[in-house]
Amino acid sequence: MEINLIKSSGLSREVFTQVMDLLQSIDGPLTFTCDPASVIDFFYDEIVPRSFGNPDDFRKKKLPPQIHIHMNYSIRKPEFNHTASWETLFSKCTTYRRQHGIADDAFAILLTPVSNKYNWFSAGNPENPYDGFVHTADWEQFLDSASAFPIAYEVLALVLQKFMFRNREDMQQLVHLKPVGCVNDLCMDKQEIILKLRTADICRPCMTALRNGLSDQYIKHARAIMESLRVKMLLSQNFLQDSAPSRMRIDRHKRIWLTDFGNLELRFNPTEKALYLFFLSHPEGAAIGALPQFKADLFELYSQFSTTGTRAEMQQRVDTLVSVTGNAASENISRIKRKLVNALGDELAAHYCIQGANGARKFIQLDRSLVTREGL
CA 90, CA 128: separation in Å to the nearest integer? Predict the structure, then answer.
């Protein structure tokens, strides 16, 4: 099943890439794809500035006429922003679908910071539920985590709810006014949003409805992605600091995955990755001053990841990295630590960081029995 994500102007490339990475982190029959060069713009007459008045107004559910598929309603603080009608948002999906030759049974989902008339987080098109949108702004008002997590979750919810709701009556029966930690919770306030994302579950009646419309292979994959999102979000919020360290898998492309933490990928630039894999391969550690002895090993690693420059230019970068008169190695170790702490929190990151006193051996304390390497 193909799910096409459409990037709207105003949505940062970083957030869009994060959403794609989260949805693609678990292999399975749901295929998430995009055209990285395509960006949807809004014309002047398609959006209007809108003033949000009394905050209490946004705690009242606004239902569009003849709604067929219900998604989450967004509660926002008073502010001015740009708003588009649902018809405009759905028309962007239709245009993209036509221009890119997307099949009728493939999804086209627009990710946009432009708000919508009814203030919902996301919605499927009542006329064609294979089309939909997710509002990507304002998540900081509800969650203390990166916006990519709830955005990715809403994409999955749109897909699942297309197969749960055959009509308006199904929607009315399955949507939970009182939250139960299910994908179909109405989520009228911040706490309800947090519950829904932290449980990442589907209740029994909703699961029964889903199985009537979707095969188990797709459901299993969707739930695995939802669980992955849940774990990664909790890690980013420092809620899993008492967990045991995860197993690490290094695949044949030298991508580094923490398999017990929602298949979290540790993403480093080529220099950082070469240095990290070097220390991972040397449990005994090495002092920064001793790195020149391993220049050939570091170059072999670095040349596998770098895609820019000639061989001589790559060699110069490795020379700079191991130079005893510079700080390149220390600076890269610091950046690696910062990325690990941001992803895992201080306590869990300590298992994976390159550590050691100044002038002493640097090492990664992770038990190497937790590390597996593919393609070796």
Answer: 9
Q: Which domains does the chain have, with CATH numbers?
A: 2-236 (3.40.390.10), 248-373 (1.10.10)
For the stretch 49-62, pLDDT in tens is: 765 555 555 444 45
The Cα-based distances of 113 to 120, 173, 233 in angstroms read 12, 30, 21
Predicted confidence (pLDDT) per residue in 103-151, tens digit: 999 999 999 999 888 888 899 998 999 999 999 998 888 788 889 999 9
Reference 317, options 331, 304, 330, 303; nearest CA is: 303
Phi, psi dihedral angles at 83 (to 5 degrees): -125, 140
Rounded CA-CA distance 339/353 in Å is 10
φ/ψ (deg, to 5) at 340: -65, -40
pTM: 0.82
Q: Could you tell me how far CA 114 lies from the centroid of its own chain?
A: 20
Rounded CA separation 203/200 (Å): 10
Name 271's Cβ contacts closer than 8 Å, sequence gap at least 6.
302, 317, 321, 328, 332
